[in-house]
Amino acid sequence: MTARETAVAVAHPNIALIKYWGKRDEHLVLPVTDSLSMTLDVFPTTTAVRLDPDAAADHVVMDGVLARGEVLRRATTFLDLVRERAGRLERAVVDTRNTVPVGAGLASSASGFAALALAAAQAYGLPGDAEQLSRLARRGSGSAARSVFGGFVVWHAGPPDAADPDHASYAEPVTDAHLDAALVAVVLEEGPKPVSSREAMRRTVATSPLYRDWVTDSRADLARMHTALGEGDMAAVGAITERNALGMHATMEAARPAVRYRTAATDAVLGHIRRLREEGVGAWATMDAGPNVKVLCASADARRIAARMRETTDARVIVAHSGPGARLQRVTA
Ligand code: DP6
């Protein structure tokens, strides 16, 4: 690319069915456990990157607002890594647009860094396949490693004693999944969360007496999840998803000081989901670093479950299906 060209990439968020919660290496963003997610077909992030040979600093605009502070620092640190790998020095002009509230536990950092990784790699002329792009996106935000791919995706933590741990930790599609699933997002709050997921997971690993057990459990959950996805067993996939998420929240609520993202409204939605199951409707909950709930279900049940959520809550309810991996939209002069 020449300096005048702009690379534009689009990526979608993903929601983990088996969660990533805890790093074993903060700098390389290496997780303690493997995780498994579904990429969504809603809330894409579109990111444009252009090199500016005359600029002294990166210029980052997010949703029309000039980035400063932590947002700018994370973007610049990430671009420094791309520049180092590409052997380039130019600063970048980045324009990124989310369609999801940022920082509300709806995975905007996953779509954001997957789109930035792809656009920046293209703009700086960094070669690499999707697996390499996943490793790169991981350095921006762990969950972004998974948004590089569509559908069900597994992110390998990599063996703890790997000679090259950065290389050993990447995501790839789950190729033998036979499930047409949907996620009904029940958006209770759209504001930024009180504690970032980065800080919350750090605190959980360092202080939660429940964390080690969750790690052991999560490894077993992942193995069972692979089997359940392969067999297209919605009930098993749902049950594993819900207990993995509830376990993650229990570990952080036992951290010192405790991190609590769940609110009374979250618990009320969990109650509605339980009642749906008692009525014979296959619906299971998952929650991330925020109060919002995503209801996992068979695609065929999504509309009915969304209607029930609208009846029983004041939340904004969005139905998401399986979505695509990150892709380049255009390279313009
Ligand atoms: C609860 O990927 O946002 O959504 O790597 O520190 O940027 P960093 O964390 P991030 O954490 C996501 C945590 C989660 C679970 C998940 O997506 O697996």
Q: How many β-strands, per DSSP?
A: 16
Rg over CA atoms, rounded to whole Å, is 19 Å
Count helical runs.
10
Give the distinct bound molecules. Answer: ligand DP6
Number of domains: 2
SSE order, as H and E?
EEEEEEEEHEHHHEHEEHHHHEEHEE
Low-confidence stretches: none
Structural class: alpha+beta
Question: Which descriptors would you attach to this protein?
Answer:
4-stranded antiparallel β-sheet, 6-stranded mixed β-sheet, alpha+beta, binds ligand DP6, 10 helices, 39% helix, 2 domains, Ribosomal Protein S5, domain 2, Alpha-Beta Plaits, 333 residues
Commentary on this structure:
This protein is α+β, with helices and mostly antiparallel strands and 333 residues long. The chain has two domains: 6-177, Ribosomal Protein S5, domain 2 (2-Layer Sandwich), CATH 3.30.230; 181-321, Alpha-Beta Plaits, CATH 3.30.70.890. Helix content is 39%, strand content 23%. The chain has helices at residues 69-86, 108-123, 130-140, 144-147, 165-168, 197-207, 211-231, 234-253, 264-278, 302-312; strands at residues 6-11, 14-18, 23-25, 30-31, 35-39, 45-52, 59-62, 65-66, 91-97, 152-155, 171-173, 181-187, 283-287, 293-298, 316-320, 327-332. The strands form four sheets. Strands 8-7-9-6-1-16 form a six-stranded mixed sheet. Strand 7 (59-62) and strand 8 (65-66) form a beta hairpin. Helix 2 packs across helix 3 (130-140) and helix 7 (211-231) packs antiparallel against helix 8. The longest helix is centred in the middle third of the chain and has 21 residues, at 211-231. The mean pLDDT is 95.
